[in-house]
Amino acid sequence: MSLEGRQYRLVLRKTARGPVIQFRSSSPETRESTLIRMGGKKASEIFEEMIRVLDKHGYITEKNEEKETYKAYRLKQEIGPVVGGYLVLIRRSRDPTAWIPYFEDFITEKYKGAHQLLTHALSLGIELSKAYPPPERVRMQLSPKVLDSISAGFKVAVRKLWRIREE
What we know:
- This protein has helices at about 45-55, 80-90, 100-105, 115-130, 145-160; strands spanning about 5-15, 20-25, 35-40, 60-65, 70-75.
- The chain is of the alpha+beta class.
- Helix 2 packs across helix 4 and helix 4 packs antiparallel against helix 5.
- The chain starts with 6 loop residues before the first strand and ends in a 5-residue tail after the last helix.
């Protein structure tokens, strides 16, 4: 699965178990599928901040806020893989909200190479998930085990490269 020529959507679904962020992707020849799911108590807060920053910088091309339980935003192609990589990065954090202040700096590339690093995190997750596919019961394309290991490794890279500390 190549990252070029794909459409990306960031979705917040409020379920009985709590809010879930979904990062979805589609290409002209395939239907949309969920690449990454991320739940937790702070999922709504993380999602709202991501949308605020993306909208501020003009990276949202379409909004769909039909219901209180479902919000979807189509992202520009060039920023989609960066957003997906960011979700991979923060996915297994003890406190994912500690990474919220860095999102805008990653998007604006205050940290040199942020776009490349986060795009590679997503790309690596896609490639490794081909070798280690997710279990049938998992409702996403990428393997949670693969994403968790990539998340841990890329956090080390981010901390060393840019001296970022999770608070």
